[in-house]
Design brief:
The strands form 6 sheets. The chain has a 4-stranded parallel sheet with strand order 4-6-8-10. A 4-stranded parallel sheet has the order 5-7-9-11, with no helix packed on it. It is built from 8 helices and 23 strands. It is an alpha/beta fold. Helix content is 15%, strand content 45%.
């Protein structure tokens, strides 16, 4: 079993007699019916764990922004574990010898590296995709209490290779030169392939997160791909920036050739950048975060941004200057 901190009931500062709010995983298995009856509102909760005997009482409570409600059997202690994926497990992770029911709440991809042949006193709530070897269907299906995402059962005589978090790989890595053609590659975070892909040495490539791959490789890679997340086919030379970053005109002046900007975080464009300069040096923008830019650049940035997960805003200081002039 993965060793993770147990999710506990809300602290006193997060609850009053009438309201419980802002709790990632709220465990009500230790609450009595008369105490729950006093609660008027439960709000901003990702996962609500409640004994089956209290479901009727819960029906009288106002629920606001509660993502999922999980009833659990009465008469048995429930140990709730909250984990943020991607999570990798062995197939034997769903067998518990404890006296209590283990409820695993996984937010993100869940990957089983070996077959699941048995489940006992372990149940799963997964907010994301699940990947497991073929032969796991029955035992894994019995363990899953709630699934918000796809489930896929893979078969391979090779190895499972997983890339999670943020990773940058040379295109040659996809040739898998030191591996087997039966190997499977699973991308569970953000992967940037920063050079051309000449060949593919994997049986299958699963994308459960975000993959950014040169557009020239689309025809070669497409037969190998199963996409449960997002794939971005970009053109040009990529440059990736994470966190807080600021660009001025000198940065773009020094660029020897146009680039594709991959931006993850909060990015500021200075007022000395002209639309002509930005258009000359940036082929496209892929945004996962927030761009703050002067008003004269915002329309062009919107045009150049081919993938946007976030916001493009007029810089606050410029907005303040305009208000002062008025």
């Amino acid at each position: 079993m993965p060793n993770k901190d147990k999710t506990i009931a809300p602290k006193a500062s997060q609850t009053t007699e009438k309201e419980i709010k802002h709790v990632a995983t709220l465990d009500l298995t230790g609450m009595k019916a008369e105490d729950l009856a006093k609660v008027e509102t439960i709000s901003h909760v990702a996962t609500l764990i409640v004994p089956e005997s209290l479901m009727g009482v819960l029906a009288d409570v106002k629920l606001e922004h509660v993502a999922s409600t999980i009833p659990v059997p009465d008469g048995k202690q429930v140990n709730v574990r909250n984990m943020n994926g991607p999570i990798q497990m062995g197939g034997d992770s769903l067998v518990s010898d404890d006296d209590c029911l283990q409820l695993l709440v996984v937010n993100g991809p869940l990957i089983f590296m070996t077959p699941v042949t048995e489940s006992r006193d372990v149940q799963l709530v997964v907010n994301g995709p699940v990947f497991a070897p073929q032969g796991s269907e029955n035992a894994l299906g019995a363990a899953i209490r709630q699934l918000n995402g796809p489930m896929d059962f893979y078969h391979t005589d090779g190895d499972i290779k997983v890339h999670s978090g943020q990773a940058k790989l040379n295109g040659a890595v996809l040739a898998n030169a030191n591996g087997s053609p039966e190997d499977i590659l699973l991308i569970a975070g953000q992967l940037l392939v920063n050079s051309q892909v000449e060949s593919v040495g994997f049986k299958q490539i699963y994308i459960a997160g975000q993959a950014l791959i040169p557009k020239e490789a689309e025809e070669l890679l497409s037969p190998y791909l199963q996409v449960f997340g997002q794939i971005v086919w970009y053109s040009g030379t990529p440059r990736s920036f994470d966190g807080n970053e600021s660009f001025n005109a000198a940065f773009f002046d020094y660029l020897p050739e146009p680039i594709t900007l991959i931006l993850n975080g909060i990015i500021k464009f200075d007022a000395d950048i002209t639309p002509e300069l930005l258009k000359e040096k940036v082929t496209e923008i892929i945004l996962n975060g927030i761009i703050e830019a002067p008003a004269h650049l915002v329309p062009l940035i919107q045009v150049l941004t081919t993938e946007k997960n976030g916001m493009i805003n007029v810089a606050d200081d410029e907005s303040a200057d305009e208000d002062a002039e008025e």
